[in-house]
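Hi X.,

You mentioned you wanted examples for the new student's onboarding notes, showing what a folding record looks like when two proteins sit in one file. Here is a clean example. The first protein comes first, with its sequence line followed by its structure tokens.
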Amino acid sequence: MLYSQRDKRWKKNRLGTCGDTIGNSGCLITILAVLFNKTPLEVNNLLLLNGGYSSGCLVNWQVASKILDFEYLGSGKSAPVFYPCIAEVKFGSRSHFVLMYDSASFFDPWYGDIGSLSNRYKKIVGYRYIRIAENVKNSLSDDFKTILAIFRKYLFA
């Protein structure tokens, strides 16, 4: 299921322990929700209950990876070797995270849709590299591949 961080069901909920909301700054937890078949509110609560935030509303990758059962491989500026990968882009003057399926297509939690990177964001400023265990039952990786194939067939054909 693809979600928008601005969905009325959670957009006004506080993100972590800072003064911001999921609707305003919950792009990363929305990506994690989509990847692991949860809602952004569920991910937010899991992180809150397990010390998964640092400095108020920054995701602690080590804790999040244990809670959601994925491997965090670090961050950098080099193009990813495998996908999915979380990319940091500029969204006006702010940073924003999107989930890349390949070098051009991505899920955008602000809009809750799949798009072409070059059409919406001009520059990737960094990456967060993750590896999802193949035997994780709640991963939606196969669903994303199917959605992406349909998207390409009908919109880019």
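Then the second protein repeats the pattern, sequence line and then tokens:
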Amino acid sequence: MILPVLSLQFDGSCRIRCKLCSLYRLLLVLLLCIGFVHPEAKAEEDAVEFPDLLDADDIAYFFSQGDIDGLHWALSNVFAASERNPDPSQVKHRLPQQLVSRGGGSTYTTEYKLKMDIQQAEYLATHLAEEDRDPKWAKFFQDAVLPIYQKVLSNVPPVDQLERTHGLYAFREADLELGIGNIYNKAWHHTNFEELKDPTTGKVLPLLNPEMDTNNIEREWFGEDNNPDHHPGILYIDDVLSKEALGRIRQLLLESTVWYQTKMPLRFGGYVGAYIDDGLHDRLLLQLSMELHKALPRIMKGHPLKYLWAYKYDSEYTGINLHADEAAVNVNIWLTPDEANLDPTSGGLVVFTAKPPEDWNFAEYNTDTDRVVEELLRPTNFANVTIPHKQNRAVIFDSSLFHQTDRYKFKPGYENRRINLTILYGDMQRSSSHTTDTPPGSQDVKTEL
């Protein structure tokens, strides 16, 4: 959790400012008790000039060296110096335009994102109030965060009145007077979970299910199992995580306030995003990325971690549209309990067997959907592999294949929201034939980082 010495300055009424005074004092006491940064460590970090954003090559560099400590250190320091830090004195750079342009800005929102933020604040106010958690922070979410979110939500017009901005709502003067600028898209509760450890021995526990048959998985990936029902480069693994890892990662994704991205609902559907270069860098997730890489050496040969994200969905909207990701291997893990899915035959992923031609650029294959459909998908009769949603199921596929979220309908409620964790490895492997041929990886490698 980023725990700054807060300076909550509101331009609104004295009533709002006075209501926060006692909370501010509580936060100061909490910060002094925790002493979250050792002075010597802080001095070392101050001596390093961090960029305002790590890119995929930076992530791959640390990962290729097996340096999870270094990767976590770099991501943590860049994030702590960003505008996500609620303490203005710790902020060293403005939000990079890359984060703003992909929907992670702090001056606008959507109705569905604000509703999700309210649900998360309610969840934290309840769960942090438990005796073994942090009742003072629970009070902060209950008394400071929720009233502002709820009042601003009442100012947001219906989405059909926001056609010019495709459903985005820019905060107005009345919202700023309520204090939304000091609350919205900040790292109020950053889990930053460490690895799971045995409480007796202190030994780091594996996150993957020890019963996972990695040899058969790799044989299926390369089509060596001769199963006509399987498709090389597309597979899924059930019960991929240990029970403990599933629970911890799900807790992380429910609690951590790193869901900063919103999409234009009238163009792209309704889901919020969290990213490795913008807060979603818990060591637990970096450990999982490394374990998967080591467990599947033939698939992962030459493909280091490049990126990681998670999405949380609103069932009143559609999911992610047709696209291909700029990576070699794509791992999608679903975290939501099965009982939340109202249609067990759907809710997952549709992976088509076509991929972008070598001479198409990113904009051509990820924005010109009509052309993709007519020139690439229709000639294959829309051949695809559709995998239904199931909790703790990992879908692994050649990331250059076109794919999209399947139709879905989940129960109402914060804990019922569809959540997927996506891990991307390596660089996109194009095909001159426009359809999947040999999937990424190496059929010869035995073991490699």
